[in-house]
Structures are given as structure tokens and as C-alpha cells.
Amino acid sequence: MAYRKGAAAERELMRLLWARGAAVIRSAGSGNSYSPDVVAIINGRAVAFECKAWSKSELFVRREQYEKMAEWSKRANTPVFIAWKYPRAGWFFIPLDYLEHKEKHYGIRLEDVRRLTTTLDVILG
Fold first, then answer.
1. Which residues contact 41 (CB under 8 A, 6 or more apart)?
2. What's the structural domain count of the chain?
């Protein structure tokens, strides 16, 4: 069930990006690989997204997954955003470095996301 919900969110994000003129690709085996779930290229600039479909008031990312995304971002010289699909609120786009380091994971509260998030149009330029 969780995989289907996540995969559906990734495909929805791809459609949103495509509609805004980006070329998009979804990573095979996303969630278990070294790369983010979705990469968008627009006007010669790449942006990557790690998708989360989560209905709790705080979003968590495993430390290992965060570290892989940070390394990927560094190697690709491409920003990575957490794309959080929240029920009945839509999408929130959070720069990776906005997540707070905890003992075993990184996280951010929904109330902080509502203040700090940016729009997809701003991200794509």
C-alpha cells in the first residue's frame, strides 16, 4: 500500500513538472537507490525531488537516505527538494538542508513547512 501511494505521488509530481515545461525522469527503484525519486530539467537546469506522501504532522527521512540525497546533490551539483504531498493541502517543496538533524533521522514539522516552503514555479525559475 505504501509503495503504491508513493509511486502515485511520484507520477503526479512528474505530471506537474511536465505541465510546467520540464523534461522529467523517475528513478528506477526509487527509495532504495542513490538517486532522488524524480529529476526535472528545464532551461538547461536540473532540479531533483525526493517524494513523500505522508499524513502526519512531522515528516521524517532516515539518516541514510538523507545522506545519500546530500551526496547525490553534491556530485550532480543539483539541488534536491523534499516534495511532501500532504492530504487535502497539496504539495510542499522543502530544500533538503531545511530538515533538522535528529538522532536517527532528519525531520521537519508541518507548521514549519507551511512557513518555509517555496512554490514549484519559484524552484523551476
1. 22, 23, 24, 47
2. 1
- Nearest to 102, CA basis, from 59, 70, 72, 68: 59
Cell numbers at 57, concatenated: 504532522
CATH of the domain at 56: 3.40.1350.10
For 2-18, write each residue's pLDDT tens digit: 556 678 899 999 999 99
Mean pLDDT of 17-44: 87
- Which stretch of DSSP H or E encloses residue 110? helix 110-116
Task: Note whether 97 and 72 are within 8 A (CB).
Answer: no
Average pLDDT over residues 86-115: 93
73 catalytically annotated: no
Choosing from 30, 33, 35, 55, the catalytic residue is 30
Range of the domain at 69: 2-124
On whether the CB atoms of residues 74 and 66 are closer than 8 A, the answer is: no
The rounded mean pLDDT for the chain is: 90
The pLDDT assigned to 2 comes to: 56
Alpha-carbon distance of 112 to 15, in angstroms, equals 27
